[in-house]
Design a protein that fits this description.
Layout: H1 2-28, E1 41-46, E2 51-56, E3 59-65, E4 68-69, E5 78-87, E6 91-93, E7 96-98, E8 109-113, E9 119-121, E10 132-134, E11 138-139, H2 142-148, E12 157-161, H3 166-172, H4 181-188, H5 191-204, H6 212-224
Parallel strand pairs: 1-12, 4-10, 9-11
Antiparallel strand pairs: 1-2, 2-3, 5-8, 5-12, 6-7, 8-9
């Protein structure tokens, strides 16, 4: 009789545990509490102003100065997404390896875009910030980059705008830094670079002469993202 009672008590304990687990699962599956909203985050870069804005739910959170592509290696124009993130990447290109540190060409953070080989990253040339000086990527000062990095997630929208318009005027104001004539000419052709950059970059993927800032950074992130950064 005592053995039968123990069996029944064990069975009841199992059932209670299962019900508790089921209740816990059910609770996590409930809708979000009233009043909570999902944040729609995007990054908008005005190539003409050489500025980057972090925008959440349509409101500007912060604006940063950046370096953009020079006329010979322009930044692509269009709407992309962030596809990968890497902290303190090791840089590889042309059998050259540069570990994390002050000499690393992509700085302390890398946010790769959905257009292969381009990203938002740091630089070992801080004086280039605010200029059309990169190989097409968006460069940021170290402190600004490290402030922005944790606020950006994989899948966030990144819009690179070549020519000033109503959106950039709203985000950055009307007193943006004037671009030099070469960059303004580039912006005037804003419809073309989006297509041209894709074609050029596709060819560059197999070209060992591609600027180090592109494929080198891509290799760096590929190497360290295995650690689920």
């Amino acid at each position: 009789m005592a053995a039968t009672k123990q069996i029944w008590m064990a069975a009841i304990a199992v059932i209670l545990a299962a019900n508790a687990a089921w209740a816990g699962d059910l609770q996590t599956a409930q809708p979000k509490a009233a009043g909570t909203t999902e944040v729609k985050r995007e990054i908008v870069v005005s190539l003409e102003d050489r500025k980057l804005a972090l925008v959440e739910n349509g409101q500007v959170v912060k604006v940063y100065p950046v370096a953009v592509g020079k006329p010979s290696t322009p930044s692509p124009v269009g709407t992309f997404t962030t596809e990968r993130r890497a902290a303190n990447p090791t840089y590889h290109h042309d059998d050259k390896t540069i570990p994390p540190g002050p000499n690393n060409p992509v700085g302390t953070r890398w946010m790769g875009l959905s257009i292969k080989g381009y990203g938002i990253h740091g630089t070992n040339e801080p004086k280039s910030i605010g200029k059309a000086a990169s190989h097409g990527c968006i460069r940021m000062a170290k402190a600004n980059l490290e402030e922005l990095y944790p606020l950006v997630q994989v899948g966030d929208t990144v819009e690179l705008i070549g020519q000033r318009n109503e959106e950039t005027a709203r985000l950055f104001g009307d007193g943006g830094t004037p671009a030099d004539s070469a960059q303004m000419e580039l912006a005037a052709r804003s419809a073309a670079p989006a297509v041209t950059a894709v074609a050029k970059n596709a060819a560059a993927a197999a070209d060992t002469r591609v600027p180090a800032e592109h494929n080198g950074a891509e290799l760096a992130t590929a190497a360290i993202l295995a650690g689920a950064l």
